[in-house]
Design goal:
The chain is mainly alpha-helical. It has one domain. About 75% of the residues lie in helices and about 0% in strands. Helix 1 crosses helix 4. The protein is globular.
């Protein structure tokens, strides 16, 4: 039994962290799909324009109560994202452990990184977007395009389109691009936190989409607030390392990323508080 478990772990470890395609990965504008600035801005523009166009078209042609049946598509979409997020979480966890194992000797020479936690928060200056963790960062970036479909499901099924949804999806896609383009520090922890929460949240959405009971509290919003809160706490850990250890790679992108995370957290909290206020108001009116 123990032999089979060991063999299974070795197989998983090979395919998710030691495969030549993962070890030799390099972020390149000529070889990596979707790696140019023009592609990024075109994709975001197409996404926003398509979502607004579909929403306006349905508003003109159909009544607000009319819903478009989507069948099992939303449930399958949630299941796919949950499984993909779980694979990315395991892959980048194994890859980070392998990178720490293989680069410990280099830390003694640079003196900018002395522990695994410092490496997770602060890449040494000169870090290039290549190798295991950046392969999974690239997969995470590609998975962000799959997340965009949820906006269209919301428009078609619920006939709703909010500025927050468009802004949030666009900014998250933009930030994941910055991680690769500038080899930004802290991205490994950010991806670990995000994929762990996504696997849980989208698994929950699949659970409720197939008719199983939902939680008695706003589960998804609470998870979003938890994720953003953890991200902001970890962001503050980069600052002392940057100033005391000689600098962290991609600090400009990190600063921009921190501002965007703060904006998203503010919008999520604002939405959450408004939702709580409206639900309490409705309950008081029914008494």
């Amino acid at each position: 039994m123990s032999v089979s478990i060991t063999a299974a772990f070795q197989a998983v470890n090979y395919w998710l962290s030691e495969h030549p395609s993962i070890v030799n990965f390099r972020w390149s504008h000529t070889q990596s799909w979707g790696s140019t600035w023009s592609f990024l801005f075109t994709a975001i523009t197409v996404y926003i324009v398509a979502a607004i166009t579909i929403h306006l078209t349905l508003s003109i042609l159909l009544s607000k109560r009319r819903r478009i049946p989507l069948g099992p598509s939303p449930a399958l979409h949630s299941l796919c994202i949950s499984l993909i997020s779980a694979v990315i979480f395991i892959g980048i966890l194994l890859s980070a452990a392998a990178e720490i194992r293989d680069t410990r000797w280099f830390w003694r020479r640079t003196k900018t990184v002395t522990s695994p936690l410092q490496w997770l928060l602060c890449f040494p200056l000169g870090t290039r977007p290549s190798g295991r963790v950046f392969f999974w960062s690239y997969v995470f970036y590609l998975s962000r395009f799959l997340h965009l479909f949820r906006t269209f499901f919301t428009v078609l099924r619920h006939r709703k389109l909010s500025f927050f949804q468009l802004f949030n999806q666009s900014i998250l896609l933009f930030m994941s691009f910055l991680w690769l383009e500038f080899s930004q520090s802290f991205q490994v922890l950010a991806i670990l936190l995000a994929t762990l929460l996504y696997s849980v949240v989208y698994g929950y959405r699949f659970w409720t989409a197939i008719g199983l009971p939902s939680a008695c509290f706003p589960f998804v919003v609470n998870c979003q607030v938890l994720l953003l809160g953890c991200n902001l706490v970890c962001h503050f850990g980069v600052l002392p390392l940057h100033f005391l250890k000689g600098g962290c790679n991609g600090i400009g992108a990190w600063a921009f990323n921190s501002i965007l995370n703060g904006v998203i957290l503010f919008l999520v909290l604002n939405f959450y508080l408004k939702k709580m206020y409206s639900s309490r108001r409705r309950s008081s009116e029914t008494r």
